């Protein structure tokens, strides 16, 4: 007690505004269930594992800790498993409300023990202990009772979510017109008014009609009568019968807004049709549950998870799984892939000790480099990948690591990645590369291993003069030409047979699906093939004409990420995923696609002098396109390339070009790219307000097409270039031979990037390994043709 008395002045009691890290170490994945437990500082409330608590003490001199240890005991229960089947509500694996086909039904109880520990000698004092000073007792009691920082972060991501997806209040909910047509809806016995369907029924809240929903891709669902009714009447809101609860919740779809919505007045809207919601019970499947069911029975789900066989689990360094934090499988897959790249291992694993030592201990939970190092060491070290105890079930999993601190940090302030909704893995990779650039100013950035330069050659068709421009990219995004399928006859026969069965009221066996097969070379041809550029402003003619444009690689990166653009929109603007198989080779030679720059005998187009002519834009059409939700720059492109011929032509152009890499980039009419740069008058003062000079701000905005956020990042990552303007800037792109080998691929199962599940296959020690969240096993049949993102390493 005398030793403790000398430290009482440093002990604090956590209040509502304090973050208490009692679930996990801020530098590692040690937690109270780890063999050495967790040490929580009674000064800063930071949690530390045994490997890091002394480092923390040496740097801060905070000496008093609450040591937390939890032991898990399995409890046998003869009644366990006799209850109702677990209800699945989320399209994810291994999360609360999610789907886990291999989960063993177990029941656990926990035994918690606590001690007061004083460093540097790890002197222990039992807890609870009434002889302890009052401030120590209050501090420890508050730490035990207060919500942990991790739990608060998790609750924040769950705000405004239901069943795994965010729903906004419909703009029609508060002023919905409901007809007084005498219709009263009975409590049961519902049937579609236009067919014999008795399930998947939707009640239109305006006129009381009951009609069946959309037909799903496997032939199930409805006959599209509800949506057809909307096209005739324009009555916007419908609720799915059988999903309504007495709390006034249910699946409400807005046809006008084309999304699932919230109707805060659902109780009143149902009462108009004689329905007392207080007596309602949910009996039908929600849209999330239906989507899940479709995925579960599809052969894509089985193939990508390799769930048709019994895979052999693997453990040890480099084979650590990651807990799914509620639709975080997109993050898990990308990070597993990145930490198999030597540049990332060198920076964040081999250099972890330096990162930890140089960090501000008190801000470690919010330090990007610290959390990257923590995740990297956790994945690569093998400390958290150990075989289950002897005698465990054959399908027992290693618990893996929980990347909650990392996910909270990288998603902070981002409209999508700060939530628990499923996200697109390619978009997350780009977001992470932006964070890497921002947090590695004037330092080695491991993300540079992906960066490459694209050469675009444009030749005026009249003067034959050429212009070469270059742009940077991190991912090779490839469109998939369905017309290049090598099995068109088989696909046609399959589609005909499927239609025949559906006409007879039967469903096609999902195991018999025939996908179009495309060769990667066909996708590369689309990327590099020349195209005609309409309305090209030729500086040689000082007039508009046509030109021919071709695209090539100017440099080849050390690691090439290939994205197959499977997510697109149907003709009716419904998001879908192309169900195709692309033959991805183990070895890839791209040297034939390298650009050569200006060649002997080629005459360059003159530089644009003076102010270029302003393209005509129909402001009315521009406004209408923006109201549809399209980016303004994409709208300008559409109007320009459709010659101001109206909304229909422009919207059709948008749908055809929505997957273009420059879809939302600032629009510059073809041929005018070399015009004198004019900084955005609104963006310039914003950048200068960050403390940068006007010259720096102009240069940064020019390099980033007047994008303020990117401009600020550009300044920090090009500081040496700005400080030594007279010396040539260092080369930004690594380059080498264009031959590669496939070392990893991320796959997605589901009909949309916003739902479903991601897994990653990685080539390790000559064997393919599947990382399915916390399940890590040797792959028996890696589905290389069904992937979404592919990682190639230079030979």
TrEMBL record:
InterPro entries to which the protein is assigned, alphabetical: Papain-like_cys_pep_sf, Peptidase_C19_UCH, Ub_carboxyl-term_hydrolase, UBA, UBA-like_sf, Ubiquitinyl_hydrolase, UBP13_Znf-UBP_var, USP
Active site: 329 (nucleophile), 757 (proton acceptor)
Residue ranges constituting the UBA domain according to the UniProt record: 616-657, 678-718
Binding site for Zn(2+): 192, 195, 212, 225
EC number: 3.4.19.12
Single biological process term from Gene Ontology: proteolysis
PROSITE patterns cross-referenced by the UniProt entry: UBA, USP_1, USP_2, USP_3, ZF_UBP
Coiled coil: none
UniProt superkingdom: Eukaryota
Swiss-Prot/TrEMBL catalytic activity: Thiol-dependent hydrolysis of ester, thioester, amide, peptide and isopeptide bonds formed by the C-terminal Gly of ubiquitin (a 76-residue protein attached to proteins as an intracellular targeting signal)
Signal peptide start-end: none
GO MF entries: cysteine-type deubiquitinase activity; zinc ion binding
Domain (USP) ranges: 320-795
Record domain UBP-type: where: 168-277
Keywords assigned: Hydrolase, Metal-binding, Protease, Repeat, Thiol protease, Ubl conjugation pathway, Zinc, Zinc-finger
CDD domains referenced in this protein's UniProt entry, alphabetically: Peptidase_C19B (cd02658), UBA1_UBP5_like (cd14294), UBA2_UBP5 (cd14386)
Pfam families listed in its UniProt record: UBA, UCH, zf-UBP, zf-UBP_var
Matching Gene3D superfamilies: Cysteine proteinases, DNA helicase RuvA subunit, C-terminal domain, Zinc/RING finger domain, C3HC4 (zinc finger)
Sequence similarity: Belongs to the peptidase C19 family.
Listed PANTHER family: UBIQUITIN CARBOXYL-TERMINAL HYDROLASE, UBIQUITIN CARBOXYL-TERMINAL HYDROLASE 14
Name of the protein in its database record: Ubiquitin carboxyl-terminal hydrolase
Source taxonomy: Eukaryota, Metazoa, Ecdysozoa, Arthropoda, Hexapoda
């Amino acid at each position: 007690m005398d030793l403790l008395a000398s430290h009482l002045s440093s002990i604090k009691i956590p209040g509502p505004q304090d973050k208490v890290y009692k679930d996990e170490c801020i530098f590692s994945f040690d937690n109270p269930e780890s063999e050495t437990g967790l040490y929580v500082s009674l000064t800063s409330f930071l949690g530390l594992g045994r490997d890091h608590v002394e480092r923390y003490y040496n740097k801060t001199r905070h000496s008093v800790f609450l040591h937390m240890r939890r032991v898990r005991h399995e409890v046998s229960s003869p009644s366990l498993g006799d209850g109702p089947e677990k209800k699945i509500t989320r399209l994810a694996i291994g999360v609360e409300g999610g789907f886990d086909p291999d989960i063993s039904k177990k029941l656990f109880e926990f035994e918690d023990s606590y001690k007061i520990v004083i460093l540097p000698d790890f002197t222990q004092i039992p807890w609870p202990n009434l002889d302890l000073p009052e401030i120590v007792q209050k501090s420890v009691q508050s730490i035990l009772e207060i919500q942990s920082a991790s739990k608060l972060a998790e609750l924040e991501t769950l705000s405004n979510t239901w069943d795994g997806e965010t729903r906004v209040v419909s703009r029609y909910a508060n002023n919905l017109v409901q007809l007084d047509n005498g219709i009263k809806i009975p409590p049961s016995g519902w049937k579609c008014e236009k067919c014999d369907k008795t399930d998947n029924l939707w009640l239109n809240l305006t006129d009381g009609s009951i009609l069946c929903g959309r037909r799903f891709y496997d032939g199930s669902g409805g006959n599209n009568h509800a949506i057809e009714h909307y096209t005739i009447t324009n009555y916007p809101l419908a609720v799915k019968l059988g999903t309504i609860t007495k709390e006034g919740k249910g699946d409400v779809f807005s046809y006008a807004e084309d999304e699932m919505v919230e109707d805060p007045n659902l109780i009143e809207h149902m009462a108009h049709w004689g329905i007392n919601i207080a007596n309602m019970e949910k009996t039908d499947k929600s849209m999330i549950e239906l989507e899940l069911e479709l995925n579960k029975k599809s052969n894509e789900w089985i193939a990508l998870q390799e769930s048709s066989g019994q895979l052999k689990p693997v453990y040890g360094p480099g084979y650590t799984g990651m807990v799914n934090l509620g639709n975080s499988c997109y993050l898990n897959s990308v990070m597993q892939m990145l930490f198999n790249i030597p540049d990332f291992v060198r920076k964040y694993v081999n250099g972890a000790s330096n990162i930890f030592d140089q960090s501000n201990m008190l801000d470690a939970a919010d330090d990007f480099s610290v959390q990257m190092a923590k995740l990297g060491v956790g994945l690569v070290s093998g400390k958290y990948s150990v075989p289950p105890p002897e005698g465990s079930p054959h399908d027992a999993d290693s618990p893996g690591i929980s990347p909650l601190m990392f996910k909270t940090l990288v998603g902070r302030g981002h409209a999508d990645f700060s939530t628990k909704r499923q996200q697109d893995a390619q978009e997350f990779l780009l977001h992470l590369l932006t964070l890497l650039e921002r947090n590695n100013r004037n330092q080695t950035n491991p993300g540079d291993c992906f960066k490459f330069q694209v050469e675009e050659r444009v030749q005026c068709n009249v003067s034959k003069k050429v212009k070469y421009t270059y742009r940077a990219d991190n991912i090779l995004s490839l469109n998939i030409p369905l017309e290049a399928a090598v099995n068109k006859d088989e696909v046609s026969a399959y589609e005909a047979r499927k239609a025949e069965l559906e006409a007879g009221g039967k469903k096609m066996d999902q195991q018999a699906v025939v996908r179009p097969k495309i060769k990667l070379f066909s996708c590369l041809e689309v990327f590099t093939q020349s195209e005609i550029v309409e309305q090209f402003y030729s500086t040689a003619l000082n007039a508009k004409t046509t030109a021919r444009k071709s695209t090539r690689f100017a440099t080849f990166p050390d690691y090439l990420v290939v994205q197959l653009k499977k997510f697109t929109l149907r003709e009716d603007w419904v998001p879908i995923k192309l169900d195709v198989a692309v033959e991805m080779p183990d070895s890839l030679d791209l040297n034939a696609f390298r650009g050569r720059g200006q060649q002997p005998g080629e005459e360059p187009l003159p530089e644009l002098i003076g102010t270029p002519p302003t393209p005509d834009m129909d402001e009315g059409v521009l406004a209408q396109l923006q109201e549809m939700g399209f980016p303004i720059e994409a709208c300008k492109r559409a109007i320009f390339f459709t010659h101001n011929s109206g909304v229909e032509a422009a919207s059709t152009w948008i749908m055809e070009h929505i997957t273009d890499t420059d879809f939302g980039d600032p629009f510059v009419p073809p041929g005018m790219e070399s015009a004198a740069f004019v900084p955005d008058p609104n963006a310039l003062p914003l950048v200068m307000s960050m403390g940068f000079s006007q010259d720096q701000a102009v240069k940064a905005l020019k390099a980033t097409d007047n994008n303020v956020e990117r401009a600020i990042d550009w300044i920090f990552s090009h500081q040496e270039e700005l400080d030594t303007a007279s010396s040539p800037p260092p080369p930004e792109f690594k380059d080498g031979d264009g031959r590669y080998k496939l070392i990893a691929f991320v796959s997605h199962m589901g009909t949309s990037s916003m739902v479903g599940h991601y897994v990653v296959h990685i080539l390790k020690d000559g064997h393919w390994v599947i990382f399915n969240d916390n399940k890590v096993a040797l792959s028996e049949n890696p589905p290389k043709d069904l992937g979404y993102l592919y990682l190639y390493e230079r030979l």
